[in-house]
Description:
CATH architecture of chain A: Alpha-Beta Complex
Number of strands of chain A: 17
Strand content of chain B: under 5%
Largest sheet of chain A: 11 strands, mixed
Structural class of chain B: mainly alpha
Order of helices and strands of chain B: HHH
Oligomer: heterodimer
CATH topology of chain A: Amidase signature (AS) enzymes
Shape of chain B: elongated
Helix content of chain B: 55-70%
CATH superfamily of chain A: Amidase signature (AS) domain
Number of strands of chain B: 0
Amino acid sequence: MSVATLAAQVRAGELTARAAVEQCLERIERLDPELNAFLDVRGDAALAEADALDREQPRGSLHGVPVAVKDVIDVAGERTTAASLILADNLAAHDAAVVERLRAAGAVVVGKLNTHEFALGAMTTSPHFGPSRNPWDTARICGGSSGGSGAAAAARLVPATLGTDTAGSIRIPACYCGVTGIRPSIGRVSNRGVVPVSFTLDTVGPLAPSAEDCAILLQSIAGHDPADATTADVPVPDYRVELEGGAGGIRIGVVRALVDRADPRIAAAVEAALERLAGSGAHVEEVEAPLLDEAGTILQLVMLPEAAEVHLPWLRTRLAEYGSDVRVRLLTGLLLPGTAAVTGQRARRWYCEQLRQVFDRYDLLAAPQMLVLPPRIGEDTVEVEGRQVLYRLSVIPTNSPWTLAGLPVASVPCGLVDGLPVGLALVGRRFGESTVLRTAHAYQQATDWHTRQPPVAA
Amino acid sequence: MSEPEFTPVALLRAFAERQQVSPTDADLEAVAAFLATVLARLPEIERALPAVTPPAGLYAS
């Protein structure tokens, strides 16, 4: 059931918040042992909160809607582990800002979701808590780092989830799990109470079956937070109202270089989606995006030292407790020359200016969300353009460029290849979430890919 | 008497230990490979980057 439908039923008195939570807890109990999307389930606490909501007048747009959040986001009284040993017993004293806002809108947080350790990787295969398994093929990864968020939304364990995205971590699992996910603009959503990866790149955003669901979630969490210097004090539009604008007249630049690098079956699905948008009145043409190959390197120069600085106390005292992949990333950030880090920040500004000029001509850019299908758990290489490359490198071309510029990006389900979902990335101007969501919604009004469910969920 | 040989791992270890971090040789070998990949692409970016470009701010603008 969609977020909108469920909330409407609770508001109309056709469904209680308790019943909605009970349904989710039953699905989690039945399906999650195979998926490992959840690290903690708040069964009794969530039911008590639902009972309290059932005694109140509706708080807001999410009254009685069960949600779950990635386990880097604090929920008061619960542990925030970041799927790490280092934080395995870390009890949160306060709600994160996004959890405060979800609760203010009436949502019930039913649990904490699996992630790549410290949100520092794209697989969600924590050596400490085990991998999240892709609901479409449980032998494969969910992507990451918000892999539990993608799996839980795809298997309809909850109607919607929150993830975080520093370098692709909402979009990748949204794509691989066949749900819609939006990474908001940097500064749009507060990061207060979220375990940081990189202060100048981190974002929090929703994953759910549809763009409409994501719009409702984003509406509830977006906006300036005086207690978080990384949020921007800019107005938040009414995303749900603006959803109905349709795709007519939207100027979409298709990043041909990325379409050409993708698995041809993925490229075909993306091109079919763009044809559909053109049929809905969008102006679709090819564009050359600047510095695609450099963006990944620039991102590493920015992100790795910032992450290492966050982790420095634990690098000194608990180094052996990190998984090897995360440990190497953090040590690389520690040992990168300071001059290279500054060059990265200068190159980032240069890159943003180059990309801004492209957005003088287009409202959105479009590209495949991922170049390849999700690898099997345990495999770390994939085939790109006939060559075996490390999976972690394969995610860079379609994620780093938009991340680096702090732009909003949605991954929208647009097909199945070998029974696995593939996604279309829609990239907007800074704070242009409305246009991204409106276009995704228009596509989803004309197609049904976002309604497809994995066999495990049926 | 020959000069002491500084391998990449030994150099990285020295810098890590200056920051009170003590990685294993295996970690540092992986870091050396990662750094080599990233730094190999840096000269191209340095050449293309206009000299007057200041660092990005918090919002990358």
